[in-house]
Amino acid sequence: LKPNFIGSSGIWSNQLLHYHKRLNFKVGILDHYVYLSPYLKNFKIYSSKQKKNKSIYINKILNKKSNYFLMGEKKIKQFNNLKFKQFYPTKSSKYILNRYYNHPKYDYLIYGINEKMNNSLIVFRIQNYNSSNIIKIIEYFGSNQDFIKYKDLFKILLLEKKSEYLSFYSHGMNKQIILKSGFVLKREKSE
């Protein structure tokens, strides 16, 4: 077999890194962004001197919940597969269903934007740790410009799930768009 793409993340040793380089894999490093909850005073997981986001009026942010929708199986199937063709490796609604919606172990939250032409979706997973949790952005499908439209959803999920922060690893996405969406760069070039 000669696949077009083999993807991996989480190479934690120099031996594995050199091994992958010898196999002529393109090896890169991800930037790690966090969006600290403006609703919590005490953090059990996150420890840093970075300032948290400014407090937001809870009623004001919850009124924006109708701008987003949680995608079920029917909505995922309706999501136009042509929208996935711009991403590499190529994905499909079948991929989203099998990889996330029907996952045997993890529960994922898959959201879209309530717009006439929803051109993006975002996949989250809540990671529990002791008596607290964080929200990980697992995958985002859409343009850089659409990512910023999820800014209010980030606040809503942090409030509803009582999460300490959102975590997002990225390579190749416009950094300024991510920062304008409320994230701070925790660590540039994380492995």
Short summary:
The chain is an alpha+beta fold and 191 residues long. It contains seven helices and seven strands. It has a seven-stranded mixed sheet, covered by helices on one side.
Describe the protein's architecture and organization.
Strands 2-3-4-5-6-1-7 form a seven-stranded mixed sheet, with helices on one face. The radius of gyration is 18 Å and the shape is globular. The protein is 26% helix and 25% strand. With 191 residues, it is of the alpha+beta class. The chain starts with 13 loop residues before the first helix and ends with a strand.
Describe the structure using short key phrases.
191 residues, alpha+beta, 7 strands, globular
Give helix and strand order, one letter per element, not per position: HEHEHHEEEHHEHE
CA gyration radius, whole angstroms:
18 Å
Look at the structure and give the mean pLDDT.
83
Distance between the termini: 28 Å
Which stretches are poorly predicted, pLDDT < 50 over at least 5 residues? Answer: none
Based on secondary structure, the structural category is alpha+beta
Strand content: 25-35%
Q: Give the helix level as a range of percent.
A: 25-40%
Give the helix/strand layout.
Blueprint: H1 14-22, E1 30-36, H2 58-62, E2 68-70, H3 73-78, H4 93-101, E3 108-113, E4 121-129, E5 132-141, H5 144-147, H6 151-160, E6 165-170, H7 175-180, E7 184-190
Parallel strand pairs: 5-6
Antiparallel strand pairs: 1-6, 1-7, 2-3, 3-4, 4-5
